[in-house]
Amino acid sequence: MRWRGVPLDLLLAAAGTALDLMLSAKGGGSALLPGNEVIPMAVGVGAPMGLVRRAPLAVSLYLAAFLVFTDQVESFTSNTAQMLLCVSIGLVAYHSGWRPTCTALGAAIAATAINLADPGIALTTNSWMYSILVPTLPVLIGTYLRGPAGRLKDGDISPDVLLAGGGVAFTVLSTWTDWHSGTQPVWVVGLFAVFGGLSLGVARRFPGLVFIFQSVLLIAADQYLHDAVNTCLILMLIALCVFAMRIASWAWITVTYVICTMLASLAIVEDSTEVTAFRVAILMALVTTPVAIGRYLGVRQAAAEAERLRVRESARLAVAQVRADQLLERENIAREVHDIVAHHVGAMVLRAGAARYAAPEGPVADALADIRETGHQALEDLRGLLDVLRDPGRRPDMPADPAEVICESAERMTAAGLQVELELDPATAHAPLVARASAARIVQEGLTNVLKHAGPGTQVSVAVTTTGQALTVRVRNGPPPTIIERLPSSGRLPSSGRGLAGMRERVRALGGTLTAGLDQDGGWLLTADMPIASPASPPTSSPASTPAERPTGCITDLITGGLTGGAT
Q1: CB 285 within 8 A of CB 260
Q2: Staple partner for 298: which of 140, 245, 428, 491, CB 3.0–4.6 Å?
Q3: What is the pLDDT of residues 192-207, one digit of tens each?
Q4: Residue 463 pLDDT class (50, 70, 90 cuts)
Q5: CA-CA distance, 239 to 144, in Å (whole number)?
Q6: Who contacts 490 (Cβ-Cβ below 8 Å, separation ≥6)?
Q7: CB 108 within 8 A of CB 85
Q8: Are 224 and 182 in contact (CB under 8 A)?
Q9: Which residue ranges make up each domain of the chain?
């Protein structure tokens, strides 16, 4: 359950009242006020905490005045008022600007000084130091929680482990012989020593909180374990160094420097110590050293990060330049292809059209018409390839029905002299379009290779089927006829040698495999298996509109048009 709004305010008020009842109940109220004033005092100090979230400055000023009042009437409630005053001024520092924070801090310092001073005894140097440091600590915590330190960008914890291990080793080895000399139990002092060293392990991530924790340890050691003061002072200087390394704000560094100097003087300077300018300079230099080291390391880290950013930006610009060069080269290739290939193919189409008028009927006219149509299709395909070369991000248009492309390829190869037997499984119409389009291109390339290398008259069987989770393309041709051996090399179709590699790359891009090689009968077998997302399901639409009917009709046309062997 989350506490919000008025319930949370009531809970804070009740918690403040209960805290004072637990701390002051045995005291029996004020020594100068008549009657039992425990409950009214508890309500007077705890109830304002219900407003601390909405008006922290007003509550802080009230608690400062209430602290002075309880101190004057010698009430045990002053202890509760001192603690709640620290909470309220911490909230002021967290929620408000520097003016309200300074106002609340000034009132808290004055009230704390009056509370620490005994009646009739003047304030000593140590009393003034504590009067300033006690209220300043929650103000620093509240202000720091607003986030002056950014998150670490690297995930390496090796420096943290080294800091933690070194801190524990240093604190334990330098203080364990004196744990029994204080007023506190040995296990309490040991725990504080261990935790004081371990806290350095999170100093890079929470530099401000660790510095405050080390400051508190130093104050506690100065009060209860004087032999550990030097150890705590060194830990605080290390925390100051890490703070200066992680925090780039000189305002925050100045604040921590002043606090560290005050605490160092509190721990080092005794009542009998003579304060001279030389000793003050030595103390200030002692505290300045970790600040200088921390800032140097911080600047080096910032410079290294800037260099890494520069390298990444340079790499990005280099990639962009390479991309621009590739686009320029593609544009040049597209221009040359258009100027050379398109010119010759266009001339071929025009000559075939003109020759058709010279022989309007017969096999020659049919061959010329086929050459003309093939040339037109070649020009369309070439235009699409040129668009891809000019704009690589543009996807070429895939055929609406790759089965029609397969049938058309079989028709063309039959007209060119191959004896094609086509088997097209109707269930392939439910395979993904990209797989069907790749199958169509593989059939085209496979039949073209048969025509190039085996020649007209070769028997070819083409099968496009679905088996489980794969779409399978199988192109097999028999041995070439003997006439192919007597053809001069100038009469054969040119071969680039890249067709098989292109088919293999196409199939591999879909996660499939392609094999090609001689079969046992002396022919050539090409097999491609391409995985599909789901197995083909039977068609659910009406017979007149199923995509599988077009391939079936196409196969029927091929049979009547002269395909040997027919389609299965």
Answers
A1: no
A2: 245
A3: 788 888 888 888 888 8
A4: very high
A5: 15
A6: none
A7: yes
A8: yes
A9: 1-146, 151-273, 299-397, 402-485+496-561
